[in-house]
Structure formats: structure tokens, C-alpha cells
Amino acid sequence: MLKCPKFSNRLNIMQSLTPFHTFHLPTKASEIIEYTNVEQLLTAWQTATNANQPVLLLGQGSNVLFTDDFHGVVLVNKMQGIEQHEDADFYYLHVQGGQNWHELVKTALSLGIYGLENLALIPGVAGSAPIQNIGAYGVEFANVCDFVDVVHLPTGEHSQLSKEACRFGYRDSIFKHEYKDEYAIIAVGLKLPKAWAPVLNYGSLAQFEPETVTAQQVFEEVCAVRSSKLPNPDEFGNAGSFFKNPVIDAVTFQQIQTAYPHIPNYPQADGTVKLAAGWLIDQCGLKGFQVGGAAVHAQQALVLINKENATGMDIVNLAKAVRQQVRDKFDVELHPEVRFMGKNGEIDSELITR
Ligand code: FAD
Ligand code: EPU
């Protein structure tokens, strides 16, 4: 048992992880500690590491799948605070990592600071947003990022990464690579132009006139569309899109398009083409398909849900079956977006869903 008397919010040994992730699976962790400042984070990380216990950093658990109980210490980001300043052209927000993302979007809107409205209703905390470069309705975190503050856990050294240094890509960043293991994100800096330009190129947002639309209208439309398509994790546990949308080369795309002329496709600047994984899964007739207690969501085939008392392995086996059917029908490989957590830490989702 770890001795951390400083933490009044320290929770019980082998505590349920069910409320700490949005799949709401019946998994447990040896210990769960909520931290509200960097000192608590560093102390807890160093104590666990000295005791040879694995450590897992967590925000709101909306992009993770626990395949097993976690035999280690889970550190939950509860660092709060938003600071604001401005110059002639921009508003700047310095947001602590544990701040809820959707609440931040609403706060910015209420302050007349626009540019986050397309990213409304994305679960999770601000400190997790850079990790997979959250994106929706034509906007990505990269578009609003100024910098990311990190701490190196073994030394306690702070540093600030510019937006360029974060190497953002589609559902990707340096935080999934070089900065994956020993760094924690503690805050993010956002830079939002005072001259707001609405982003209206995705789906039903195109109905609005750029000259007259308000950020509030965009916010409401995004919330309405999302609520109609995506299951509420409190009703059916899920982690949003389970797979990334696959990006394929132009020649392969043309072959698929010849066979499926109506295939949704999004040409990329480098000549590759992004496909809609939800459409591919849907075309395999998999909406509602169930393995154990896990199912493909009936409205959005890209979302796998905890339908009835699923285990982590039910979700893994469902993901495997979905991948196989898409491979068989289209010869396209799907790759999980969700991060898989095993007994001792992250495990390679590629290896267990093939
Ligand atoms: P967590 O799931 O807690 O953590 C994610 C990863 O980051 C884990 O590997 C974790 O170990 C690591 N991590 C956590 N905190 C830190 C830290 N401080 N430092 C370093 N590493 C850390 N995503 C989109 O991009 N667009 C969407 O439209 C979208 N819609 C969603 C809809 C639903 C219903 C759900 C459930 C999810 C959706 N997601 C979407 C996925 C998810 O919301 C995002 O990935 C979000 O940023 C995850 O935040 P989190 O705080 O829950 O992260
Ligand atoms: N589609 C189907 N059947 C389905 C689902 C989708 O035919 O069951 C078709 C749609 O009709 C549309 C296309 O596939 O033509 C794309 O669907 P949608 O607009 O719903 O978006 P998506 O590609 O499924 C992506 C992101 C979401 C993000 C939305 C909106 C990924 C992996 N997912 O979903 O992000 O909210 O666009 O921008 O990029 C997440 O990452 O967790 C997530 C929810």
C-alpha cells in the first residue's frame, strides 16, 4: 500500500475504474489518485515508480479501453483554472489540463471568444486534447493551439512545446510518440483570432451563411448533430469512434471507387484519400452486430458500445470481427483510435485486434 498522507482525495485500494472511463467496464485498479497540482502529480508518480508500480495517466477515460484490471496506480487529472489575456488581434487562453473540454468551449463562447464551437461536446479534459489532436466538424485542436505545457515526470522539469513542435496530424501528435511515456501534459495554450471566421464546410453546417451565422448557432448545430448520432456514454458505454478513418493511396482508392461509386471520400493535400470507416463497417451490414455484451452502434457504425454488461475482451473480439469483415470486403485495414490498457499499461491494439 502506498503512503501518501498528503492526498485528502486519495481513494481506496483496488478501486473500481467503472466511473473513470466512458466504456464503463467492470474493471479495477490497484489505486486511483486524483491530482490538482503538479507537485501532487510528481509525488504520486515518483512514489509509484519507486515501488515498481505501473502508472497510468488519465483524464476522463473517454479514449481508452481497459482489457483487464490495471495492476498499478491511475493518476487522474483534476487541475483546474483558465487564464485569459489578449492583444489587438487575438484572445489567448491558458487552460489547466484537468479542465473539462466542453465546459471550456461553453465558457469561451460566453466570453465572446470564438473558434472552439465546432469542437463542442467532445468528452474529456483540455490536457488530453493535444494527444490525439481532437477534431470534429472541420476543426482540429491544432487549429486553435498556441502551445502545450508538459512536465518530465522523472526529473520534474517543465517545458513548453510550440504548436509546430507538437507535430500534429490526423488523430496524432508527438504525445503518441517521443513524449508518450515520461511526460505529462499539464496545461494548454489556445490562440483564437478576434476576427472570427466560421468553419462551415462539414455536413449540415453548410446550411449557414458565413456572413450572418453566429458562433452560438454553430455550437448549437454541432451539439444537435452529435447528440442525434453519437450514443451518450452514460446510456451505452463507448469511446466515440473506435477506429480512425483509413487513409489510402489514390490508385487503391480508384479501384475501390470503381466497385463502389458512392463511397464517401475526402481527398488529402498529399494526394492520399481518407475513407469513412463508419461507411465501410455499415456496408458490411454490421450495425447492431453483437459479440458478448459489445455491439456496433445502430446509428453510427464507427462506434462500438457496451450494450449489456460487456467485458473489455468482448469489445476487443468485436473490434477484431469488424476489422476482419472490412478487410474481407474492401481490402482496407482499420486501425483503432482508442488506446488499449492492459494489466501493466498500454498494450498494442494492433496485436490483439488483428
Ligand atoms: P483519456 O481517455 O483519459 O486519455 C487518453 C490518452 O491520453 C490515454 O492514453 C492516457 O493515458 C493519456 N493521457 C491522459 N492524460 C494525460 C496527460 N495529462 N498527459 C499525458 N498523457 C495523458 N475525439 C475526437 O477527436 N473527436 C470527436 O468528435 C470525439 N467524439 C467523441 C465522442 C464520444 C461520445 C466519446 C466517448 C469520445 C469522443 N472522442 C472524440 C474521443 C475523446 O473524447 C478524446 O480523445 C479526448 O481528448 C479524450 O480525453 P480524455 O480526457 O477522456 O482522455
Ligand atoms: N457513415 C455511414 N454509416 C455509418 C456512419 C457513417 O454511412 O454508420 C457515413 C456518413 O453518412 C458520412 C461518413 O460516413 O458520409 C462520415 O460520417 P460522420 O460524418 O458521422 O463522421 P465520421 O467519419 O464517422 C469523424 C470523426 C469523429 C467526428 C466526426 C465529425 C474519426 C475517426 N471520427 O467521424 O470523431 O466527431 O467525424 O467531424 O475521424 C472520435 O474521434 O471519437 C469522433 C467521434
UniProtKB/TrEMBL annotation:
Pathway note: Cell wall biogenesis; peptidoglycan biosynthesis
Record's subcellular location: Cytoplasm
Active site: 171, 241 (proton donor), 337
Keyword list, A-Z: Cell cycle, Cell division, Cell shape, Cell wall biogenesis/degradation, Cytoplasm, FAD, Flavoprotein, NADP, Oxidoreductase, Peptidoglycan synthesis
Subcellular location, principal: cytoplasm
GO BP terms in the entry: cell division; cell wall organization; peptidoglycan biosynthetic process; regulation of cell shape
Reactions that this protein is recorded to catalyse: UDP-N-acetyl-alpha-D-muramate + NADP(+) = UDP-N-acetyl-3-O-(1-carboxyvinyl)-alpha-D-glucosamine + NADPH + H(+)
Domain FAD-binding PCMH-type: 25-195
Stated role: Cell wall formation.
Family, per entry: Belongs to the MurB family.
Protein name: UDP-N-acetylenolpyruvoylglucosamine reductase
